[in-house]
Amino acid sequence: MWSWRALIQSVGAAPGSELHRIVTARIPDLIEYQDFDYARRYADVVARVREAEDRTVSGKSAMSEAVAEFGYKLMAYKDEYEVARLLVDPQAEAAVRAEFGEGARVSYRLHPPMLRALGMRRKLKLGPWFRPAFKLLRAERTGHGQLLAPVCSGTTGHLRATVHYRRDRTCRAAGNRPEARRSLIT
Length: 186
Fold this sequence. Notes:
Blueprint: H1 4-10, H2 18-33, H3 36-56, H4 62-75, H5 80-87, H6 90-100, E1 108-110, H7 113-117, E2 124-126, H8 131-139, H9 156-173, H10 178-185
Antiparallel strand pairs: 1-2
Helix pairs in contact: 1-2, 1-3, 2-3, 2-4, 3-4, 3-9, 4-9, 5-8, 9-10
């Protein structure tokens, strides 16, 4: 069984480097966002690009850093499930209490994709009574919509973009040589 620290090390970034800083921040977040296997896919892509970059321009890491940064942004897309996870995070609730006091009133302003598709032009204002729905969405994060797909649709294009981005970055890191691309993608 791997730990998140071992996953960070699997990228092969030099300790103290910018790439190491990025993956050290991003991998634990991707585990929380989805699960360990999801973070492992991210680490694998970054490691492949780093290895290809080392072979072609030794000592440089700009490409690896860009893939680590923007690959993360694609994979940790702030969809409805991630927003729900962030809103019910105990640390976020503690931060609100610390800044505004114990009696602070919280409301949420949402514009769900389904209502937007039906023509609703403004956000809904929901009170603390809506927290159980956020908790349900948070529990759904690993399935990303299996139960609530009719309510929270709109991420399919994001998934296609992620696959394309990963394939494109990997191919470019291989120098667009067909034999190198095959070794990186498979």
